[in-house]
């Protein structure tokens, strides 16, 4: 407009020097004209100019208002949420020589409604969110306000984040290292005092490490994105929980180096040092990494475009698409790069050198011939459809004949992927099932590294039903004639299921090991089979690894505990979860797990099942038999629920228990009577000698261990033995 001499170019002149620092440029919601632009320019001393864009005239100043109530206040951070502004202001102390410890808490977080209507701008009353606080940076999501400690904050107060919920006036304290700490509803201004708010959590917060925050931004889903000084990207949800997303490939970030963050649907875009990273927020997988020719880049809002990103630079506006289709006529260069990248990872894992191996070094070095031979064979095979094949070296021709079946499988897989892309909606599901089955089978027959495991996680998340059917097919799971679950998988496949990267190795980026993925599929589609599957895996483990071997899965975390962990992480808990927990504990046949299941059954008062479990598992070992019997004897002493089953319990009594041992256990667990005036309770639930008599008779009449030792001597024909004949 200035170029064409149109009035309304005062917007640029309004921030010409001399002016205080500009704190924020905020677009406000305006109900005056749909689609119109209302811009609030907030200056450091609190003066706020509200501008309105009129199509024939350009930008026009509507009104100038003062946000702060005090003349000495200074705004440091501001954000807008709906029709309200939220800011953090500094309120300097009145005395010139004030105590510096008190000066550290001289900031205040305020909120104020700013509505633009037909009659101009209406400014609401100031609402104190937090006072006597350290400096905070305020960031707004659609329903919450995140308060991030400034870099200059005290070490004590920079160990946690604050999340304000305007609708409920609730303030949540959370620490990334510990998760949710506490929340409090602020009913009055006296409760908004920062020091009073933390009074009950000082001891807990003192043990936390200070926050490691380089850059913060708000995602489109309402979470807080954080980038640490080491390049770790994570998200803090409004409920206070934190989730790791991705690690940027940097050693450490300088305090002044800019990092741009923005989310587009489920895609996280990040620009650092002229490199654009595109990461899937759900799985943490790196989708693309592009080197940009410009350093200073800003993301633009691009509504309606889910597969492209608009970038604003000094030279213009650019669009970056991350879903462009591959050129099907020339697949060779991409495939060649994939082969060399995979070869780099393979050789790097087996290299003793500390220098990093790159694709360029691999192509130019000539030391590794395997990727060169493979790319030549692949290019030779793929070019046969389009043009006559070029001559292949004799050394490669023999390798080509050996790889012919693998190449056919690869080509059929690529053809199937093309069918998925081009098929109508009615046929996509059937193609996806076949594709997922081939992919799962392929990965289970290759090295189970972190990349393959991350890919399997995304497959199970995107196609859960197809992945479940593919798993059943690969493991050959089925029920036999007796209704028992059997698996005819090869030992190599079992080792991939149980011996891949474990939870302590892949806990980042939201991945879980393959065994946990399969257990989650069982819980979703065939929960009755899960205990039998865990029992099958334990049988295979005992045959393949030595007991408590650290290389085997049982040497780390027992398989039944891993399955219980999957059960505990279910989104929706159901009534059958307790029964599933019992079955998983019992199928392990471990003493501690069996006793835990027994205590759980006692807690649920399922006495019939208690007796059945005791009869079944007392046969496993004498020590477990003694523990089970002692537990049930203690329960018998406390109540009369087990009385109908005494004829089944007494045969379980271990041989080494004596009558005095039994009486000791009973006396230790007798309930304390509150009425000692009469010998028997009116309720009739006391233990009597008559109930205990059959057990004591059984123990007393049973031959003792000493009797068995001298049994032969006691059963000799004559006792004592005859006197030997005397010799003259």
From TrEMBL:
InterPro entries the UniProt entry points to: BLOC-2_complex_Hps6_subunit, HPS6_C, HPS6_N
Metal-binding listed as a keyword: no
One GO CC annotation: lysosomal membrane
Transmembrane segments: 21-43
Residue ranges of coiled coil: none
Keyword Membrane: yes
Pfam families, per the entry: HPS6, HPS6_C
GO biological process: lysosome localization; protein localization to membrane
Domain BLOC-2 complex member HPS6 N-terminal intervals: 1-319
Keywords, sorted A to Z: Membrane, Transmembrane, Transmembrane helix
Top-level taxon in the UniProt lineage: Eukaryota
BLOC-2 complex member HPS6 C-terminal domain location: 337-726
Entry protein name: HPS6 protein
């Amino acid at each position: 407009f200035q170029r064409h001499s149109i009035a309304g170019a005062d917007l640029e002149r309004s921030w010409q020097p001399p002016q205080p620092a500009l704190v924020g440029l905020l677009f406000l919601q305006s109900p005056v004209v749909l689609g119109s632009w209302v811009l609030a320019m907030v200056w450091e001393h609190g003066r706020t100019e509200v501008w309105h864009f009129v199509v024939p005239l350009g930008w026009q100043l509507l009104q100038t208002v003062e946000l702060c109530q005090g003349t000495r206040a200074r705004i440091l951070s501001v954000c807008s949420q709906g029709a309200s502004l939220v800011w953090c202001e500094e309120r300097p102390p009145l005395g010139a020589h004030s105590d510096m410890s008190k000066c550290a808490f001289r900031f205040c977080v305020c909120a104020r409604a700013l509505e633009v209507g037909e009659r101009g701008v209406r400014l609401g009353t100031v609402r104190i969110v937090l006072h006597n606080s350290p400096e905070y940076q305020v960031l707004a999501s659609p329903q919450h306000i995140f308060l991030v400690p400034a870099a200059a904050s005290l070490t004590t107060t920079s160990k946690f984040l604050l999340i304000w919920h305007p609708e409920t006036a609730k303030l949540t304290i959370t620490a990334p290292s510990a998760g949710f700490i506490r929340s409090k509803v602020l009913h009055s201004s006296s409760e908004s005092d920062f020091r009073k708010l933390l009074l009950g959590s000082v001891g807990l917060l003192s043990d936390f490490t200070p926050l490691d925050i380089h850059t913060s931004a708000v995602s489109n889903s309402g979470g807080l994105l954080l980038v640490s000084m080491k390049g770790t990207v994570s998200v803090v949800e409004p409920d206070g929980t934190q989730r790791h997303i991705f690690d940027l490939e940097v050693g450490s970030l300088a305090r002044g180096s800019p990092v741009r963050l923005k989310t587009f649907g489920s895609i996280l875009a990040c620009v650092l040092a002229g490199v654009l990273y595109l990461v899937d927020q759900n799985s943490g997988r790196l989708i693309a990494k592009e080197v940009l020719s410009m350093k200073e880049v800003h993301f633009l809002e691009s509504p309606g475009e889910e597969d492209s990103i608009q970038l604003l630079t000094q030279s213009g506006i650019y669009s970056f698409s991350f879903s462009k289709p591959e050129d099907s006529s020339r697949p060779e260069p991409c495939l060649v790069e994939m082969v060399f990248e995979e070869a780099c990872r393979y050789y790097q894992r087996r290299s003793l050198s500390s220098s990093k191996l790159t694709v360029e070094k691999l192509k130019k070095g000539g030391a590794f011939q395997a990727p060169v031979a493979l790319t030549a064979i692949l290019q030779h095979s793929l070019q046969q459809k389009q043009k006559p094949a070029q001559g292949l070296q004799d050394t490669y021709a023999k390798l080509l004949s050996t790889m012919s079946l693998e190449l056919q499988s690869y080509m059929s897989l690529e053809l199937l992927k093309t069918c998925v892309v081009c098929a109508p909606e009615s046929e996509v599901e059937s193609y996806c099932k076949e594709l997922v089955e081939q992919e799962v089978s392929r990965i289970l027959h290759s090295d189970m590294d972190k990349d393959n495991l991350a890919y399997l996680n995304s497959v199970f998340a995107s196609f859960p039903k197809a992945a479940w059917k593919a798993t059943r097919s690969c493991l050959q799971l089925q029920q036999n004639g007796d209704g028992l679950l059997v698996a005819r998988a090869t030992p190599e496949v079992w080792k991939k299921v149980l011996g891949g990267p474990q939870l302590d190795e892949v806990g980042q980026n939201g991945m879980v090991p393959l065994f946990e993925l399969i257990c989650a599929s069982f819980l979703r589609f065939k929960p009755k089979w899960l205990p039998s599957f865990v029992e099958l895996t334990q049988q295979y483990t005992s045959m393949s690894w030595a007991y408590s071997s650290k290389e085997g899965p049982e040497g780390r975390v027992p398989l039944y505990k891993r399955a219980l962990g999957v059960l505990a992480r279910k989104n929706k808990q159901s009534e059958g979860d307790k029964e599933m927990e019992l079955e998983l504990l019992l199928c392990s046949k471990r003493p501690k797990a069996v006793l835990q299941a027994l205590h759980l059954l006692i807690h649920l008062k399922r006495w019939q099942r208690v007796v059945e479990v005791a009869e079944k598992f007392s046969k496993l070992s004498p020590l477990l038999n003694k523990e089970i019997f002692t537990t049930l004897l203690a329960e018998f002493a406390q109540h009369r629920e087990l009385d109908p089953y005494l004829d089944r319990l007494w045969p379980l009594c271990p041989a080494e228990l004596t009558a005095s041992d039994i009486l000791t256990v009973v006396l230790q667990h007798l309930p304390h009577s509150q009425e000692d005036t009469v010998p028997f309770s009116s309720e009739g639930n006391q233990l009597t000698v008559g109930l205990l008599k059959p057990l004591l008779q059984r123990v007393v009449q049973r031959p003792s261990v000493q009797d068995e030792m001298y049994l032969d001597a006691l059963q000799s024909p004559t006792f004592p033995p005859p006197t030997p004949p005397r010799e003259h």
